[in-house]
Design a protein that fits this description.
- The longest helix has 7 residues.
- The strands form three sheets. Strands 5, 10, 11, 13, 14, 15, 18 and 19 form an eight-stranded antiparallel β-sheet that branches.
- It is globular and about 45 Å long.
- The protein is mainly β.
- The protein contains three helices and 20 strands.
- GO terms for molecular function: carbohydrate binding; glucose-6-phosphate 1-epimerase activity.
- It holds the Pfam family Aldose_epim.
- It comes from Theobroma cacao (Cacao).
- It is an enzyme of class 5 (isomerase).
- Keywords: Isomerase.
């Protein structure tokens, strides 16, 4: 193992090409055959495959891959607004902009690059952005794929403005599941959540785990750093580890809402579940020169794994 790590060249494992709209996309690979694709449209991860080549993220068959429309699936970046909780377009503008590759990013800790293939992207506001959200910022995103196939997104937002600003944020992560009725989430039990279906009214989670039999659109508050999504039929568990992201969004549109979305198939709600590391209830405020970091790591383990096998408050950070 030591030898392969010594000769592993992350640049050689990073391929830049054009998608069918002529927009640059980056494909990351690891030595075992896992891969991740990142589009410069939105800085959005559009694919994450395991060593067997199986897709782990959901993308709608009706997704529109053409700016300025955000892509329905993968991991859109919601910034500087989540949902419709402010004056901007739904989920903010970052997911609709063309990002650039950041050739000289400020250093991250060695752990965030060692043995990984990764790409650094950068978003700065355009004149048009400044008209609707008048704050100068630098948003740096690193997407990395580790030797074990785990996918990490690290966002760093810096205030280069002369005055403070606040924002909300989410990694709007569309997980591909076998059957939504057979999926459960562990790690959010007993927590308070805001229910977007009930005008953001606050409730307390009563179940031992979250299961699905109708539309769910919630923001769970003060969440642990590790959450697990168990897919019984595929016998696998998605483990979401996060930091700097106190909230977790859980969303499935179910049947009625699915039929109202033009870029979403009528029955596709059965194969997807959004579970997002987020900062929503208390927006992040940055003074001039300050920087915020939000990190989310996704991994997949066999489903014999359950919450007793991991410490909800730690692991990996």
């Amino acid at each position: 193992m030591g030898h392969s790590a010594a000769v592993w060249d992350y640049r050689a494992a990073t391929e830049i090409s054009k998608d069918w709209n002529g927009i640059d996309k980056v494909v990351l690979r690891n030595p075992r055959g896992a891969s991740a694709s990142v589009s410069l449209h939105g800085g959005q991860v559009t694919s994450w495959r395991n060593e067997q080549g199986e897709e782990l993220l959901f993308t709608s068959s009706k997704a529109i891959f053409k700016p300025p429309k955000a892509v329905r699936g993968g991991i859109p970046i919601c910034f500087p607004q989540f949902g419709n909780c402010g004056s901007l377009e739904q989920h903010g503008f970052a997911r609709n902009k063309i990002w650039t590759i950041d050739e000289n990013p400020p250093p991250l800790s060695p752990n965030d690059s060692h043995g990984k293939s990764f790409i650094d992207l950068l978003l700065k506001p355009s004149e048009e952005d400044l008209k609707c959200w008048p704050y100068s910022f630098e948003f740096r995103l690193r997407v990395s794929l580790a030797a074990d196939g785990s996918l990490t997104l690290i966002s760093r937002v810096r205030n280069v403005n002369g005055k403070p600003f606040s924002f909300s944020f989410a990694y709007h992560t569309y997980l591909l599941v076998s059957d939504i009725s057979e999926v459960r989430i562990e790690g959010l039990e007993t927590l308070d959540y805001l229910d977007n279906i009930c005008q953001k009214e606050r409730f307390t989670e009563q179940g031992d785990a979250i299961t699905f039999e109708s539309e769910v659109d919630r923001v769970y508050l003060s969440t642990p750093n590790v959450v697990a999504v168990l897919d019984h039929e595929r016998k696998r568990t998605y483990v979401i580890r996060k930091e700097g992201l106190p909230d977790v969004v859980v969303w499935n549109p179910w049947e009625k809402k699915s039929k109202s979305m033009v870029d979403f198939g009528d029955d596709e709600y059965k194969q997807m579940l959004c579970v997002d590391g987020a900062a929503i209830e208390k927006p992040v405020t940055l003074k001039p020169g300050e920087e915020w970091t939000g990190r989310q790591e996704l991994s997949v383990v066999p489903s014999t794994f359950c919450s007793e096998h991991f410490d909800l408050q730690s692991k990996g950070f």
